[in-house]
Task: inverse folding
């Protein structure tokens, strides 16, 4: 269990370092309707309530959002306007993807 915890800490640290060098882009500066994950580093391990999912959809700039649950099938076609929210079996957000 501690190895998994240490791996999670290392992954979060790497993401923080990678994100620190990226320029912040406001929603108005982004191409309208295109998904952006600028917000995502601080928004994991949160319950995927409808209100929270809508708030992150707005922050991402996406026009549509899809919550993806384990064991369910989804189309793999790329959609630049879509935010994909990956949750675990307890509906806790594990990650985000655009497309």
Result:
């Amino acid at each position: 269990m501690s190895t998994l915890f240490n791996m999670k800490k290392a992954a979060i640290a790497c993401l923080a370092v990678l994100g620190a060098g990226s320029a912040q882009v406001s929603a108005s500066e982004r191409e309208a309707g295109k998904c952006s994950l600028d917000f995502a580093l601080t928004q994991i391990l949160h319950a995927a309530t409808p209100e929270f999912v809508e708030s992150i959809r707005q922050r991402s700039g996406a026009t549509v959002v899809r919550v993806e649950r384990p064991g369910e099938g989804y189309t793999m076609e790329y959609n630049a306007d879509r935010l994909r929210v990956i949750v675990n079996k307890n509906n806790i957000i594990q990650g985000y993807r655009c497309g």
Notes: Confidence is low (pLDDT under 50) at residues 13-30. The CA atoms of residues 53 and 81 lie 15 Å apart.
